[in-house]
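Side project, low priority. Logging it here so it doesn't get lost.
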Amino acid sequence: MPLLSVNQLKIDFAETNFTAVNGISFDINEGEILALVGESGSGKSLTALSILGLQPVNAILSGAIYFKEMDLVKKPYPPAVRACKIALIAQDPLSALNPMYSIKDQLIEAVKIYQTKLSKQEVYQLCFDYLEKVGIPDPARTLDAYPHEISGGMRQRVMIAMAIINEPDLLIADEPTTALDVTVQAVILELLKSLKKTILFITHDLGVVAEIADRVLVMKHGDIIESGTVYEIFDKPKEDYTKHLLASVPVL
């Protein structure tokens, strides 16, 4: 049974009579990295937010999203699912992290909400260990820093640590390398692969997809127009839209 099943998900905005997602369906298997690709406005991020129960308040959802047999479309959103069972890695870590609080305070808050029985020292050690796990060379110094005091690549590592610190079953990575230079991007992609987690990876960059994904869904104007393995999408694309996306990948 898939870890996550999206069945005929449709997202409307009643005030504007606009359908943003047109009844899409897909599964994510445990341990798989599934890439959801398409240009801006295709409905990728809105689909991800709906899985997390974070869609806009004026969005009307129909269909079903099953996570371990729980229907996430039904209200209220199941407690302890968001962040504890399904976690988000945001695309812009500088805006996702609160500039008024240290990295330590923000990591500790993420832990204490769900792991209430840990002592203060255990919580600190857990934060230290997870910064080390994501490859931060000086965890103690980083914990005391504020977001603006560390680099973009370091901030993204902090976001990944924050996402995995409660050992979620599913990671949603929404354009996690967009704000990073090419060298740091490669390091972050390698880090995500090394986590051995189930990941829904959202991007417009097919060059990134080639580095990380097992399967690919191509989204256009709220529809999934093509799906397949990385090999099938890159070597035997069927849709003209997919071919155009591939043609836009820079050749070095």
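Brief comment: Residues 4-247 form a domain with the Rossmann fold fold (CATH 3.40.50.300).
Revisit when time allows.
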